[in-house]
Amino acid sequence: MPGPVSDSYDPEFGTGANAHDVHAAIQRVVDRVTMVLGTELHNIVEVVQSKPGHTRRFNFSEQELRVVRFALLRAMESV
Asked: What's this model's pTM, rounded to 2 decimal places?
C-alpha cells in the first residue's frame, strides 16, 4: 500500500514550494505597482467605469509581464 500523499503537493504547480514561488513573484509585482499607485484601494467597479486618469510610465521586466498576465488571466476566471 502506498504511503500518504504529501500535503505540499499541488496539482497545478507540483509542490507547495513551487506554489510559494509563484505567490512570491506575484507579491513582488503587487509591491512594485503599489509603490506607484499608493496603498489606497478603490472599488474595482468604480475604477473600470471611471475615466482613465493620469498616464503613468512604468517599466516591467519580461518576467514581471508574464507574472502580470498569469495573474490577470486568473482574475478573469473569477469574474
From this structure: 0.81
The residue extents of the domains of the chain are 9-77
Residues in the chain: 79
- What tens digit of pLDDT does each residue of 28-66 get? 999 999 999 999 999 999 999 999 988 988 899 999 999
The whole-angstrom separation of Cα 45 and Cα 41 is 12
C-alpha cell at 77: 476566471
DSSP structure string for 14-77: EEHHHHHHHHHHHHHHHHHHHHHH-S----HHHHHHS-----------HHHHHHHHHHHHHHHH
CA distance 45 to 79: 12
Q: Which is nearest to 59 in space by CA: 36, 26, 25, 39? A: 36
